């Protein structure tokens, strides 16, 4: 991201059936890190949001971190 740019990350992934019968895997975003691995923001998995919008206050590489929950 460049200074002043706005970006939206759509944070809820698809629910997919795994190779194990009747197990569904749902992906969601748990946080954002910069290129050095510094955590910029983290979220609990209890109430993941559908999207997150940011406006850059500096030039930065933004890396979302994904996790999943099996049902």
Commentary on this structure:
The strands form two sheets. Strands 2, 3, 4 and 6 form a four-stranded antiparallel sheet that branches. Strands 1-5 form a two-stranded antiparallel sheet. The chain has one domain (6-70). The chain starts with 5 loop residues before the first strand and ends with a strand. It is an all-beta fold and 71 residues long. It has strands at 6-10, 12-17, 24-33, 39-42, 51-55, 63-70. The mean pLDDT is 79.
Low-confidence stretches: none
Helix-strand topology string: EEEEEE
| Helix and strand composition category | mainly beta
- Name the shape in a single word: elongated
How many domains? The number is 1
Care to count the β-strands?
6
Strand content: over 45%
How would a textbook summarize the main sheet?
A: 4 strands, antiparallel
End-to-end separation in angstroms reads: 35 Å
**Number of separate helices:** 0
Helix content: under 10%
What integer value in Å does the Rg equal? 14 Å
Average residue-wise pLDDT: 79
């Amino acid at each position: 991201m460049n200074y002043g740019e706005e970006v939206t990350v759509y944070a809820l992934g698809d629910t997919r059936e795994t190779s194990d019968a009747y197990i569904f895997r749902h992906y969601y975003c748990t946080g954002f890190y910069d290129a050095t691995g510094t955590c910029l923001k983290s979220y609990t998995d209890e109430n993941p949001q559908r999207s997150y919008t940011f406006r850059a206050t500096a030039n930065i590489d933004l890396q979302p971190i994904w996790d999943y929950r099996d049902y």
